[in-house]
């Protein structure tokens, strides 16, 4: 059972009517192919998220597959949510491997429907703004429940599918109970009139009551009438209604580092941050940042409960608080304060992305200089796989670096936009390299194409680095041809060809020339022009031979072998793929060893050399299992089933392979 819920809140009161209505609706629901939707709506600060989580915990014993949770604000860029990205995360929570998530949005939705058709789970969708953001996330099962939290009602949800639970402010009795639970101070019992005044001041908003309660606890010597008078005076002076009046007052009691961090957080690239990136943003060192985060948590301006006991726990400043912090920044920030903080965190993220890229993809050609450490902001604790003697340790380190790139993708995308907007061309181009590595595992994302377009624009604007021009044009071309935009991809490669003439005579320049030719070959393959592709890969291979680049030679030999196989030139394909496979083994490139073994086995099967093909398929399958790659395992089982079907007396083995491939796809929602 997967339960994506943080610890329960310490204090929660009332909402009895809403809870009863929700439970009654669940008991009475008789939907077959669509879920019940419980829609919680109301202004910020009413406790919608906490109620959604409480309902999910209450329903847990009825839904054996657990609770999934997504916060749409974590996926919101410039106010817009990419539903395909959200569906991909849900598929991952349902056990689908990243490599097996469908690339196209419509196919991804079908995969999600397949995976959830018989499911029984609770899905929490937080911070929805429009019904259109929720509809693609609905499971295809009447045995599931979706709990949606939004600031306003979602009128476009289908009639009869949703139970609208609009949350009013807490009534005075419930608000008083919550305040007493938060404060537990003898002054409340001694002065009930002041308690009523404080409750009225908070307007029945649980968030305001929490912050006001902390304020009371922080001033234990003052009589309540004097304290409330000061609070009321401050709120009236500021003229900000509701809970923001409380937040403004609390901000005035923050220490200088905590106040500085609070007004800098809305300028952090991306919707979420980590303690590490906050340290870079603040610029006062790790200890000072940890103390500031804890102070903001105590003040009710942050919620650290969702942060696990590790360094890379993610934190999000909720929308209303983020808007408040931004206003505080505009009002109180010193000259240059925000620009300096953004430069620090931007360069820190560039450095971490470069390190994660190198550890995830292995040592390879990059066109950007490695950025130096940022003073006072330690590096993320990623370790170099090449420094480990054990294969399993190397694989774990590489996987951790790859996960970091995935988790930070929105921050990296935002950093590219920020860098380009501020004329920081070196940073924009440097970030395109780790985004390239991320995109190889997660193709067909519009944000990735935007990143590469900005990197090209930065390289063109800079105009003094031919390697940047070549690299960024090739990076942009690939997602374009993968999306079927072949003419646009051709224009980028033509521009890259023009920039090749500006390169020097060094080894890296030679690699870039070979890379452009390889890209032309891959574009030709996307068009089905395999003769042209084979010729391009052969020319690229010759360039790698000339500069003594063994990995490049191996890769282009492999690509040329695949192209020859497409052309039906099996003997030539066999020779090339055998050579590529031996080189991959020698270079200890595990993934390429598996890919070359699979391709070579396919050619051997077509040549009738069944036993040799079977051995290579089995080797490739062992490698795929070791890497836990369901995508590779499924296609190898398919190929082995086809192999065994043609072998006398091997029908049972063929059936086993077909069943294994089907089971993998079924687990991942593909059938």
UniProtKB/TrEMBL annotation:
Residues 34-176 form the AAA+ ATPase domain. GO terms for molecular function: ATP hydrolysis activity. Coiled coil: none annotated. Signal peptide: none annotated. InterPro entries: AAA+_ATPase, AAA_22, P-loop_NTPase, TPR-like_helical_dom_sf. Pfam families: AAA_22. This is Regulatory protein. It comes from Streptomyces natalensis ATCC 27448.
């Amino acid at each position: 059972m997967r339960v994506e819920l943080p610890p329960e809140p310490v204090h929660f009161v009332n909402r009895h009517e809403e809870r009863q209505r929700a439970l009654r609706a669940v008991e009475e629901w008789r939907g077959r192919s669509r879920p019940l939707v419980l829609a919680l709506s109301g202004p910020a600060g009413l406790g919608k998220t906490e109620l959604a989580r409480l309902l999910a915990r209450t329903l847990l014993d009825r839904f054996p597959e657990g609770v999934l949770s997504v916060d749409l604000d974590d996926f919101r860029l410039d106010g817009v949510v990419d539903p395909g990205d959200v569906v991909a995360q849900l598929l991952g929570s349902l056990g689908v491997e990243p490599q097996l998530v469908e690339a196209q949005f419509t196919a991804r939705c079908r995969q999600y429907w397949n995976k959830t058709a018989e499911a029984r789970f609770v899905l929490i969708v937080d911070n929805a703004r429009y019904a259109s953001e929720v509809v693609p996330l609905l499971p295809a099962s009447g045995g599931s429940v979706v709990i949606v939290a939004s600031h306003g009602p979602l009128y476009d949800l289908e009639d009869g599918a949703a139970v609208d639970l609009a949350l009013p402010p807490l009534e005075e009795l419930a608000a008083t109970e919550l305040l007493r639970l938060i404060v537990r101070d003898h002054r409340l019992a001694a002065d009930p009139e002041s308690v009523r005044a404080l409750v009225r001041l908070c307007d029945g908003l649980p968030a305001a009551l929490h912050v006001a309660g902390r304020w009371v606890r922080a001033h234990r010597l003052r009589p309540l009438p004097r304290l409330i008078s000061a609070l009321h005076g401050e709120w009236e002076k500021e003229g900000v209604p509701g809970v923001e009046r409380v937040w403004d007052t609390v901000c005035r009691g923050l220490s200088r580092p905590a106040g500085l961090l609070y007004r800098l957080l809305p300028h952090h690239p991306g919707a979420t941050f980590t303690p590490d990136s906050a340290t870079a943003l603040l610029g006062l060192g790790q200890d000072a940042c940890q103390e500031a985060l804890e102070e903001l948590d105590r003040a009710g301006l942050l919620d650290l409960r969702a942060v696990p006991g590790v360094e890379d726990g993610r934190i999000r400043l909720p929308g209303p608080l983020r808007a408040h912090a931004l206003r505080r920044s505009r009002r109180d920030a010193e000259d240059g304060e925000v620009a300096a903080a953004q430069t620090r965190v931007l360069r820190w993220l560039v450095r971490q992305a470069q390190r994660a890229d190198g550890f995830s993809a292995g040592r390879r050609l990059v066109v950007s200089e490695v950025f130096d450490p940022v003073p006072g902001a330690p590096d993320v604790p990623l370790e170099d796989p090449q420094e480990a003697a054990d294969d399993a340790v190397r694989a774990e380190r590489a996987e951790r670096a790859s996960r970091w790139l995935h988790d930070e993708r929105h921050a990296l995308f935002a950093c590219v936009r920020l860098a380009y907007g501020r004329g920081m061309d070196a940073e924009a181009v440097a970030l395109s390299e780790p985004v390239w590595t991320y995109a190889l595992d997660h193709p067909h994302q519009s944000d990735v194409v935007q990143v590469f377009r900005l990197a090209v624009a930065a390289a063109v604007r800079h105009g003094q680095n031919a390697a940047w021009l070549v690299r960024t044009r090739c990076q942009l071309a690939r997602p374009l041809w993968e999306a079927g935009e072949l003419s646009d991809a051709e224009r980028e490669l033509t521009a890259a060809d023009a920039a090749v003439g500006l390169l020097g005579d060094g080894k890296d320049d030679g690699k870039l020339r070979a890379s452009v030719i390889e890209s032309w070959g891959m574009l030709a393959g996307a068009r089905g022009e395999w003769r042209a592709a084979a010729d391009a890969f052969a020319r690229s291979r010759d360039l790698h031979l000339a500069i003594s680049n063994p990995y490049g030679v191996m890769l282009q030999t492999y690509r040329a072998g695949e192209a020859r196989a497409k052309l039906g030139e099996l003997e030539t394909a066999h020779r090339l793929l055998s050579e590529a496979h031996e080189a991959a083994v020698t270079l200890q490139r595990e993934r390429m060893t598996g890919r070359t073994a699979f391709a070579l086995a396919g050619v051997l099967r077509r040549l009738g050399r069944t036993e040799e093909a079977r051995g290579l398929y089995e080797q490739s399958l062992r490698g795929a299992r070791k890497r836990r790659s369901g995508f590779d395992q499924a296609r190898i089982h398919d190929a082995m089933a086809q192999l065994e079907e043609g072998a006398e007396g091997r029908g049972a083995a063929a059936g086993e392979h077909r069943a294994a491939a089907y089971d993998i796809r079924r687990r991942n929602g593909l059938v």
